[in-house]
Write a structure and sequence with these properties.
Layout: H1 2-9, H2 17-37, H3 46-59, H4 71-87, H5 101-115
Length: 116
């Protein structure tokens, strides 16, 4: 999740971090179970590499949002940065999230809505 959060902060994630985590977990679990269930002589070890490439392409963008035209990526980037700030521990003096919990929850809801 930390890697996905950094990806979102860079404006490269198409979907929220939690959803991307579930998609990646489901895909890797499915690939693993498929390979385990096959006879060793019939296993196609390229299956997991193809699935990996497909999943990465489905949850990430090709380049960071740079022009403001990709509102979804920017909303996800802000949400990921907010999540990082909230989980980074006690803020330094004058830094950190100054929103109340209810304000933070509302902002995150709006950002996730904008992200689609």
């Amino acid at each position: 999740m930390r890697l996905l959060r950094r990806t979102a902060e860079a404006g490269r994630l198409r979907i929220p971090v939690e959803q991307a985590t579930r998609v990646i977990h489901a895909a890797t679990t499915g690939a693993t179970l498929t390979l385990i269930g096959e006879e060793p002589s019939k296993q196609d070890l390229t299956t997991s590499a193809r699935l990996r490439d497909t999943v990465i392409a489905s949850v990430t963008t090709h380049s960071p949002a740079s022009s403001g035209s990709d509102l979804a990526s920017r909303a996800l980037a802000i949400d990921a940065a907010l999540e990082t700030a909230l989980t980074a521990g006690p803020p330094a003096a004058g830094a950190g999230v100054t929103l109340r919990a209810t304000e933070t929850a509302l902002l995150r809801e709006w950002l996730q809505h904008l992200a689609g």
